[in-house]
TrEMBL record:
Pfam families: Glutaminase. Its EC number is 3.5.1.2. The lineage of its organism: Bacteria, Bacillati, Bacillota, Bacilli, Bacillales. It comes from Lentibacillus kapialis. One of its GO terms (biological process) is L-glutamine catabolic process. Substrate binds at S69, N121, E165, N172, Y196, Y248, V266. Belongs to the glutaminase family. It catalyses: L-glutamine + H2O = L-glutamate + NH4(+). This is Glutaminase.
Length: 323
């Protein structure tokens, strides 16, 4: 009986969110982008949307937050759709770095001929330079279009967060200049950085993230009408990157203890895509689901500390790991 199932699922998830909310104290809200300091560190929320339409929401589900690094998955998808997968993979590799998201270290290694992956800042800024268009708004138009196709509404950019990062990010400027120096950038640096800061400042909710995750889990198809929103090959590569590079230098641990393709951002969001699995039909969401988590208190690696623990708990209880 779906109503009963829905009720016990809700009860479980409410309990788990209440429990892991106590863990937010183990993390800190990001402060290197001044505007992000305004987030409430105690917030925690989750939305799970199943391919079959079932959904569970618990905790702080209504708070909008900026995508930050989660946008790297979206711009990678759009760049692949606009320029072709092989064009992209000639310019950005698909190897984890094992370093922090804003690391520059590997760029200087002689054998490195391109940024190691599109999910660290060097790779993501390179992807922003590959998006077609002369201005940042032109480059982001297909990004907003894809988001609108997935969400059914067009998200807005948070201008305060955009300006805050634009006016403070010496690190990303340094990365940008380095990429320019070694010839990895495809286009004008200033437009590229503006594009990158803007994409990071797109406001979403965890409902939005769960919806995106559900479409990725469903190989890029919208299950409502079987329309292909993201080509299957691109959805697949994106999930590979989420699994291997999505949580930065915590990706190995996340794959071990959670085992779900996921992408985090320093605003505290996590986008997760749970592919269908058939091991145990009695478990919820066996046909696949998307999960959005928000918890702005971050651990050392820049991922939501309570959010990861909550995901680990749910993945263990419901056997969600893809392995
Ligand atoms: N805009 C952020 C930055 O470039 C994104 C980083 C993140 O979310 N990990 O620093």
């Amino acid at each position: 009986n779906t109503e009963e199932t829905q009720e016990w699922l809700q009860q479980y998830v409410d309990d788990w969110v209440a429990f892991y909310r106590k863990h937010t104290g183990d993390g800190h809200v990001a402060s290197y982008i001044p505007e992000l300091k305004n987030a409430d560190p105690d917030d925690l929320g989750i939305v799970i949307i199943g391919k079959d339409g079932m959904s569970v929401k618990s905790g702080d589900t209504e708070i909008p937050f900026t995508m930050q690094s989660i946008s790297k998955a979206i711009t990678f998808i759009v760049a692949c759709m606009e320029r072709g997968v092989s064009y992209l993979l000639q310019r950005v590799d698909v190897e984890p770095t094992g370093e922090a998201f804003n690391s520059i270290m590997h760029l200087e290694m002689k054998q490195v001929k391109k940024p190691l992956n599109p999910f660290n800042n060097a790779g993501a800024i390179t992807v922003s330079s590959i998006l077609p268009g002369d201005t940042s708004n032109e480059r982001l138009e297909p990004v907003f279009q894809l988001l609108e196709n997935m969400l059914g509404h067009r998200p807005a950019m948070n201008h305060d967060v955009f300006k805050s990062e634009r006016d403070s990010s010496t690190r990303n400027r340094a990365i940008g200049y380095y990429l320019l120096e070694v010839g990895f950038l495809e286009s004008d640096l200033d437009v590229t950085l503006e594009t990158y800061f803007k994409q990071c400042s797109i406001d979403v909710t965890i409902d939005d993230l769960a919806r995106i995750g559900m479409i990725l889990a469903n190989d890029g198809m919208d299950p409502k009408n079987d329309v292909e929103i993201i080509p299957r090959q691109i959805a697949r590569i994106t999930k590979v990157l989420m699994l291997t590079c999505g949580m930065y230098d915590a990706s190995g641990k996340f794959a071990t203890y959670v085992g779900i393709p996921a992408k985090s951002g320093v605003s505290g969001g996590i986008l997760a895509a749970v592919p269908p699995r058939v091991r145990d039909e009695s478990m919820p969401f066996t046909r696949g689901c998307g999960i959005g988590v928000y918890g702005p208190a971050l651990g050392d690696e820049g991922n939501s500390v309570a959010g990861i623990r909550l995901l680990r708990h749910i993945a263990t209880q419901w056997d969600l790991s893809i392995f």
